[in-house]
Design a protein that fits this description.
Number of helices: 12
Order of helices and strands: HEEHEEHEEHEHHHHEHHEEEHEH
Radius of gyration: 20 Å
Helix content: 40-55%
Distance between the termini: 16 Å
Oligomer: single chain
C-alpha cells in the first residue's frame, strides 16, 4: 500500500494490529497455541521439497560457513523442519503463528505478512473438515461474500502416475495446470504418447463446480483407485458442509505452487480481491522425509491482501 500522508499510514497499521489480534484471539480460544517461526531456511532443504518453485524468486543469504540460507518463502516448511527431527510417537501440535515471507519479484524483495494454522500428529477422521471449518469461520468474519475452492491432489497424482510421464513432462504439466492454460495443456499432451488416463487429463479443467456437477462431468472418464480416493475425500467434505454453507466449489485441476501437498487443498477468496485470502491443505508426505509419515494439515491467512480489501472498503 502507498500512502499520501503519515496519518493514513498509521491508521492502516493500527487496523492491521487489530485484525491480527482478532484472529489470534479466535484461534487461541479454539485451542491453538502460539509459536514464533524463524525467518531463515536452508536453501537446499527448501528446494528439495519444493522443486517447482522459481529459484530466482528466493532471497538468498550466506552464513559464516558459506552455507546458503534463504529468507523464508513459506513458513510451513520451516515449522516441519524445526519439529520433525525431535518428533516423538503420540505427539500432537495444534499451533498458530504470525510471520513474514519473502520473495524477489524481479524488481526488489517483496515482504508478505501472514498468519498460519497447523495441526500435526492429529489422526481424527474429521480433521480436514475441522480445518476447513476454522478457515471458513475466519474468512466469514470479514466478508459475507466469500468462496472456497477445494481440490484433492490425490486425484491429479493418480492420473499422472497412470500416464507414467517422464519427470520433465510431469513438472511441465503441473506448471501448465497451475497457470490454468487450457489450450497449452491440450497442445502439450498432443505431443506425448497417448494413454487412456489422458482422456481425463485433457478434460480436467471441466471438472469444477458443485460436487454433483463434478461427479456428472466425471462420468465415462478414466479413474483409478488413487483418483477415487481423492474424490471420496472431497465427498466427505461436501457432506460435512452441505447444511452449513453454499460458498464452496470443487476443482479437480487445482495445483499449488508448493510441491508438498498430498490430499485436500483449498483456497479462500472474498469479494474485492482476485487473490487468495486463505490457502492451505494436507501435507502428510512432507513429514515422511524424516523417516515416518505423520498426519499434518494447515493454512495461511494472507493478512496484507485481506487488510488491503478491508481498508479500501472502509474508504468508500
Amino acid at each position: 500500500m502507498n500512502f499520501l500522508n503519515i496519518e493514513d499510514e498509521m491508521k492502516y497499521f493500527q487496523k492491521m494490529f487489530v485484525l491480527r489480534r482478532d484472529i489470534e484471539n479466535f484461534l487461541y480460544e479454539k485451542g491453538y497455541m502460539n509459536i514464533e517461526p524463524s525467518i531463515f531456511e536452508d536453501y537446499d532443504d527448501f528446494i528439495g521439497v519444493n522443486s517447482r518453485i522459481d529459484k530466482r524468486s528466493t532471497v538468498k543469504l550466506l552464513d559464516n560457513n558459506s552455507e546458503i540460507l534463504i529468507l523464508s518463502p513459506d513458513i510451513t516448511t520451516g515449522i516441519v523442519n524445526k519439529f520433525m527431527p525431535r518428533w516423538e510417537p503420540g505427539s500432537r501440535l495444534k499451533v498458530f503463528y504470525y510471520g513474514k515471507t519473502y520473495k524477489h519479484n524481479g524488481i526488489g524483495i517483496k515482504e508478505n505478512r501472514e498468519m498460519g494454522v497447523e495441526i500435526i500428529g492429529e489422526k481424527n477422521s474429521d480433521t480436514d473438515e475441522n480445518i476447513l471449518y476454522t478457515a471458513s469461520r475466519i474468512i466469514s468474519k470479514y466478508s459475507s461474500n466469500y468462496l472456497f475452492e477445494i481440490g484433492n491432489s490425490k486425484f491429479l497424482k493418480g492420473i499422472m502416475q497412470s500416464c507414467s510421464f517422464k519427470k520433465d513432462d510431469y513438472e511441465n504439466i503441473l506448471d501448465i495446470l497451475y497457470l490454468k492454460n487450457r489450450q497449452e495443456l491440450k497442445d502439450y499432451l498432443s505431443e506425448l504418447p497417448y494413454r487412456e488416463p489422458m482422456s481425463t487429463l485433457v478434460n480436467i479443467f471441466d471438472l469444477e463446480g458443485s460436487f454433483d456437477e463434478v461427479m456428472g462431468q466425471l462420468e465415462g472418464l478414466y479413474t483409478n483407485d488413487l483418483m477415487r480416493q481423492g474424490i471420496e475425500e472431497l465427498g466427505k467434505i461436501n457432506a460435512y458442509f452441505k447444511d452449513k454453507t453454499d460458498k464452496i466449489t470443487y476443482d479437480l485441476s487445482m495445483v499449488s505452487e508448493l510441491s508438498y501437498y498430498d490430499g485436500t487443498i483449498f483456497r479462500g477468496y472474498i469479494e474485492g480481491s482476485n487473490k487468495e485470502i486463505i490457502k492451505g491443505g494436507r501435507y502428510d508426505s512432507f513429514t515422511e522425509q524424516y523417516g515416518y509419515k505423520i498426519p499434518a494439515m494447515g493454512f495461511t491467512v494472507e493478512l496484507d491482501e485481506l487488510i488491503k480489501v478491508l481498508y479500501k472498503e472502509e474508504q468508500k
